[in-house]
Design a protein that fits this description.
The structure is a homodimer.
Chain A lengths: L12 H25 L4 E7 L5 H11 L5 E5 L5 H4 L5 H5 L7 E5 L4 H8 L5 H20 L3 E8 L2 H13 L9 H8 L1 H15 L6 E5 L3 H21 L33 H18 L9 E8 L5 H9 L7 E5 L5 H4 L5 H4 L8 E5 L8 H4 L5 H20 L2 E9 L2 H13 L9 H8 L1 H15 L6 E5 L3 H22 L2
Parallel strand pairs in A: 1-3, 1-4, 2-3, 4-5, 6-8, 6-9, 7-8, 9-10
Helix pairs in contact in A: 1-10, 5-9, 6-16, 11-20, 12-20
């Protein structure tokens, strides 16, 4: 696949100057439009062989475009902060918001490719990493990121010539490091790993563009033209039609409706509650003070029907914890900065360090619940969310997190009773709004969405716990006891 | 000052239950109003002697209030990420936004007090830290943060009794750590340091409230009532009047007008420019590749008249740098998340790590320039900003940053010429707006603001460089050369 890129090209100085002036003007105009529309972000990945002018190209883009709205990120060895989070965390942090351009100099493929070349990663491990990368790139593309992946290529002979000429010139010899020379010696091994990598990760949504890099002027115009074309195509495309509400999904058939299969009203006396709650809280308190607790993190997700008692359960849970070591993230409407990013970005920013516990009061599941039912997300978007969410949670668990997900279920009658009670009690009245009553009318649609959510996202590593919540006392004990058990299991795995 | 706090108090169970129910309702209502108004954040500092019920109180607040809108932060030893930034950075990151409550469990005073007790910090060093803290607290209060500082106190006898009773009970004995026992042994030393600390940092804006902590019920009601009173007082205060435009300040008298003293038109031939620019860029490139560069950070601030050529200078500066190792922060209108925080918050979040360079294209000086002249900030607010800015920059420099500030100055005639040129050139037209012409009408007011800004904020550690910019070539060379020199100096200091 590199044959075309190894052809020799010439561009005269004069031709270059003429085209560059025009290109620059057009690129600047496109960048301005990008910033005004704020419809999508642009993410440019710069990769390829050493000595192929990657740095020079990034400099050039900064010169051609308005550098204030470009953010260049280099990804070398992770810092301590980065190292304690899942590997993709640092890339999420650096994503450009809508209307801006991000350049990743080296990206998610850099470390796996290097490790594969050096033999630290076998073919199976490499394939797994490649899969992860493809899922991420697909998700970004589907979230509207204009993802442009440039691979700067030189043949072995071209690379050799380039390094020689850099070394000869006193002004540029510092650019050739010992590391470059080592890589040059591994040229064949490197290409042997990269060639299939490029082939397999050149997907429909995010193909690689191989840049013939031997001639500086040709390379510059090549990248400039390609970038301009890609920008224009997206800028000129009509704005996507507004999302139409998805027709209410049919309720799950009775025999596989896992919610209707629950016995929502569970008995528990006040005395048993006091005893069992204290016991469960004690277990959780001990687990979170365990000496190995510092090497795992805990993520507790709370979803449930309106008025199912999430707040009360969270409060009893918090009472068992050191208040410094946990935080509650209430998930409501996203902020301006969050709206300018892919959907999962606002959850990634709250992923805890080891030794910390984060409670999400509502979560990323909003996409397949309220956003689905109310039509805030288009069907293809919430459909793909199941896989994206599983992928997200897998990354958390692989990095040592315990992910506990609770669905607090109450019956329609019980909800009605609680709504009425809230309306009748002065200090609870703020908890009940018109919207709650409206949501209630879509009870069946919500129930169907919950069934499908549990079906698709209850995984071995991050299972859903369905909590019968008509009796609050039972629900609280079940939540805390389950979490305690899961943390204990997590501690065993961390051994 | 602890006498009153050492008195013994009793509250019967029944009295407690009665008052608690009412207090709880009122606190919840106040918290809800806080969230609806979103006018100010609440920051609660929890400090005091060991065993005085600090944890218990935080638990209680989480129980009384809606814990989803409370964020508790504990500040132990800094992480690597925190350690490479100025000491106050981690506190800035954890500040609650408007409408929410933040609880700092241990805060900026914890480390200095501990170090003073252990003798690692002398009286002079301690006084300096105390000064820094008072400046920060005053700034937060003036930015509208409701800052509540609770000091939980026990007499030596009370503390002894408390520890004994914790140790006796199997359920609570784990709460007494070896650390607690050490602190108990140092009770007198601790009080000897804390007493004057509390006295001196009990300022009008942010006084300490000493909590008599021996009796659990009394302590709970004491804190609850105080918190409620403080919340209500702020919630019920009328919204501050809208800022009125500050009357245009008089221009600085000719003889001390440092801008008019400049010779704005400096000669430089194109040939000299090419040579000197390359030389300055080379110096900067070498300095930022120096082996000690990894232990300093660089912050370059660009301010100047409209059309003074900031963009062009920034571009040439960037050309000398590794694009991965610098970023440009264009400062425009703050985002929603930024508007919910104290003024300097949005700059703190961009403070670079060692080995990195950040260019601010416009900066925190907006407060004493555009916000002052256009009346976006009230006079007392921009007046206090000089000291706050000096304090901010001092923290950066103390932490090893080079802070270079450039004012690019052009004459009124030159600006007129450039505005006209922009209007006449197709691809520059977007750079000139009605607003630019309007700002120009306030030329004298801006000039006076610039003179005062330089006068008050050009410090030994972070001096202003005034750049004569009628000739762009001269300006670019001066900027890059100056920055190169400052980085070289920084490297020497870092030795």
């Amino acid at each position: 696949m590199f044959e075309a890129a190894e052809l020799e090209h010439e561009v005269s100085k004069e031709d270059y100057r003429k085209e560059e002036a025009e290109l620059r003007r057009a690129l600047l105009a496109a960048q301005r439009e990008l910033g005004q529309q704020r419809r999508f972000p642009v993410l440019i990945l710069i990769a390829g062989v050493e000595g192929a002018g990657k740095s020079e190209t990034v400099h050039l883009l900064n010169e051609w475009l308005d550098p204030r709205f470009i953010e260049v990120s280099g990804f070398g060895l992770p810092t301590e902060e980065e190292a304690v989070h899942p590997p993709m965390w640092r890339f999420w942090r650096a994503l450009p918001p809508k209307g801006r351009i991000g350049i990743f100099f080296g990206a998610w493929q850099t470390v796996p490719i290097l490790e594969r070349v050096l033999g630290k990663l076998g073919p199976g491990g490499f394939a797994t990493r490649m899969e992860e990368i493809m899922r991420l790139e697909r998700m970004l593309a589907q979230e509207g990121v204009l993802l442009l992946k440039y691979w700067f290529h030189l043949s072995k002979a071209q690379q050799k010539k380039r390094i020689k000429s850099l070394e000869k010139d006193k002004e540029t010899s510092w650019k050739v490091t010992r590391y470059d020379r080592t890589l040059f010696e591994h040229y064949d091994d490197f290409i042997e790993v990269c060639e299939p990598y490029l082939r397999e990760t050149s997907t429909g949504e995010a193909p690689w563009t191989v840049v013939p890099a031997a001639n500086e002027r040709f390379r510059a115009l090549f990248v400039g033209r390609h970038l301009l074309g890609a920008l224009r195509a997206r800028l000129d495309a009509p704005a996507p039609a507004a999302v139409k509400a998805t027709p209410a999904p049919p309720a799950a058939p009775e025999q596989v409706n896992i919610i209707r299969a629950l016995t929502l009203k569970q008995e528990m006396s006040r005395d048993d509650y006091d005893k069992e709650l204290a016991e469960a809280q004690g277990r959780l308190a001990r687990a979170t003070r365990h000496k190995r607790y510092g090497s795992i993190s805990v993520i507790a997700v709370f979803e449930g029907n309106d008025a199912a008692g999430k707040g009360g359960a969270v409060r009893r849970l918090g009472a068992a914890l050191d208040p410094r070591a946990y935080r509650i993230v209430p998930v409501a409407a996203p902020t301006e900065e969050e709206r300018a990013q892919p959907y999962l970005w606002r959850f990634w920013r709250h992923v805890p360090r080891p030794g910390r516990l984060t409670i999400f009061d509502r979560s990323w599941y909003g996409r397949v619940l309220v956003e689905r039912v109310e039509g805030f997300a288009a069907e293809p978007d919430w459909r793909r969310a199941y896989a994206e969410i599983n992928d997200f949670e897998e990354q958390l668990v692989t990095n040592g997190a315990v992910v506990a997900k609770f669905w607090l279920a109450i019956s329609k009658d019980e909800q009605h009773r609680r709504f009425k009670d809230r309306e009748a009690t002065a200090f609870k009245r703020h908890k009940i709004t018109e919207e709650d009553w409206r949501n209630r009318e879509k009870w069946d649609a919500y129930e169907a969405a919950v069934c499908e959510m549990v079906e698709r996202t209850s995984t071995g590593m991050a299972p859903w716990t369905l909590v019968e919540a008509d009796n609050k006392l039972h629900a609280r004990v079940k939540v805390i006891r389950t979490l305690a058990e899961m943390v204990e299991d997590g501690l065993k795995r961390a051994k």
